Amino acid sequence: MRDPDSSEQALIEADDKLCEVLGRNIDLLPIVFRFGISSNVGQSTLGEICLQKKIDLDFLLAVLNTYHSSNYFPNTESVNLTLLTDFLIRTHQHHRQVTIPLLGSLMQELKIKLPDTKLIITLEKYLNDYVSKLIDHIEFEEKYIFPLVGILDENGRRSDLKTSSANLKKLFGQHNNVETEISDLIIIILQHIPENADIQIFHDILHTLSHFEKEQIDHARFEDKILVPRLLKLFGTKFRSNAF
Questions:
Q1: 85, exposed or middle or buried, with CB in 10 Å at 0-12, 13-18, 19+?
Q2: By C-alpha distance, which of 222, 85, 221 is closest to 145?
């Protein structure tokens, strides 16, 4: 029988079959989809799939292992920033197109089962406020942060350094708020599940929120530990964590 503890800690490697990797952690399936790997998994290894689809193997392994284990994180200097920002944008698209609509659908189902209750009114307002802030955060990153990867021109001149550094520093505070608010919402729901309620719908909402929270934390790790420090270094700005 599979030892869950050992499988959780084992690093994902190039010669691992993708179907077995996903069998160990099915939550990696949407991550894999963001690399354009959506069909014909079969018995192929990650190395074989990357060769066939022209995917950077080292970057794929770095991302999968980061999402798979909270104890793992790649070498911050070795990650390709262009590949990273492309992946982060695809993650934003996934949350806009899948996660947020799913949460909205679950909330509508809950409203049908518990119409006009104080809990539902509170949850709907909290969720709507959170989604609005998240969309603003996503748009801020895509407009002001990700384009900085290509801001150096052919002559190596830097432009708008002061504004760019200020936007990078601003990002940290936004991440703290986004992560905390998901956790707060989960606690509110757990504290107020009504007696004789449909437990399955609450489980579905809590499971979706919990998975979303973990994805947001891993997403922020890539930005806070790799993207922002590397960009600050690029602009010649000394990175100091206590400055944020």
A1: buried
A2: 85
Among candidate residues 182, 222, 205, 207, the one with its CA nearest the CA of residue 31: 222
Q: How far is CA 39 from the centre of its chain?
A: 22
Residue 114: CB partners within 8 Å, gap ≥ 6?
120, 194, 197
Calculate mean pLDDT across residues 17-22.
93
Which pair of tokens denotes residue 87?
Answer: 């992946």
Written as one string, the DSSP assignment of 134-163 is HHHHHHHIIIIIGGGGG---TT----SHHH
What rounded mean pLDDT belongs to the chain?
Answer: 83
Sort 182 into a burial class: Cβ within 10 Å, 0-12 / 13-18 / 19+: buried
Q: From the CB of residue 31, how many other CB atoms can be counted at a distance below 10 Å?
A: 23
